Amino acid sequence: MAQNKLNLLELNDFPWNALMAAARAARLQAHAPYSRFLVGAAVLDEHGRLHAGCNVENAAYPQGVCAEAGALSAMVLAGGRRLRAVVVLGDAGGALVTPCGGCRQKLREFGAADLPILIADPQRALARFTLDDLLPHSFGPDHLSLNP
Ligand code: THU
């Protein structure tokens, strides 16, 4: 198990521990009175900066915003335009809290196919994917520049 955790985090390549801490703290700020499902996300941008977000629900339920979308908004506001690493952190009793379909596409706007996405619970990293794992054969901004 300890070995597995080390493999997931590959401690040398990205500041996973700082991203985990940011996502863990963000999750505790979530406004989720309807689902009671708290999620935190943290992203690393091309400047080496961390940005965090939490889910923010609404009494008009579809108006809620996912944690990943909040973290992306914070990154863009701060001038970040490329994603280097992502952590999504929730607590589903050991099940993986992976980004929803809409958030996968939102991540695609700013991330390369090999963007690492770590899925965690408050205690530990559970799985590591690439964006292409989660959103294969995807459509993105690069396609628009191919428009004849
Ligand atoms: N949620 C996120 O914020 N991110 C995810 O990756 C999965 C789901 C939120 C949306 C909603 O506020 C709550 O979790 C339950 O779906």
UniProtKB/TrEMBL annotation:
CDD domains per UniProt: cytidine_deaminase
EC code(s) of this entry: 3.5.4.5
Gene3D superfamilies per the UniProt record, alphabetical: Cytidine Deaminase, domain 2
Binding locations of Zn(2+): 66, 100, 103
SUPFAM superfamilies: Cytidine deaminase-like
Cofactor: Zn(2+)
Keyword match Zinc: yes
Active-site annotation: 68
Domain of life: Bacteria
GO BP: any one term: pyrimidine-containing compound metabolic process
GO molecular function, one term: cytidine deaminase activity
Swiss-Prot/TrEMBL keywords: Hydrolase, Metal-binding, Zinc
Binding site residues for substrate: 55-61
Record's GO cellular component terms: cytosol
Reaction equations catalysed: cytidine + H2O + H(+) = uridine + NH4(+); 2'-deoxycytidine + H2O + H(+) = 2'-deoxyuridine + NH4(+)
Domain CMP/dCMP-type deaminase intervals: 14-142
Function in brief: This enzyme scavenges exogenous and endogenous cytidine and 2'-deoxycytidine for UMP synthesis.
Family of the protein in this entry: Belongs to the cytidine and deoxycytidylate deaminase family.
PANTHER family membership: CYTIDINE DEAMINASE (PTHR11644:SF2)
Official protein name in the record: Cytidine deaminase
Natural source organism: Sphaerotilus montanus
Lineage: Bacteria, Pseudomonadati, Pseudomonadota, Betaproteobacteria, Burkholderiales
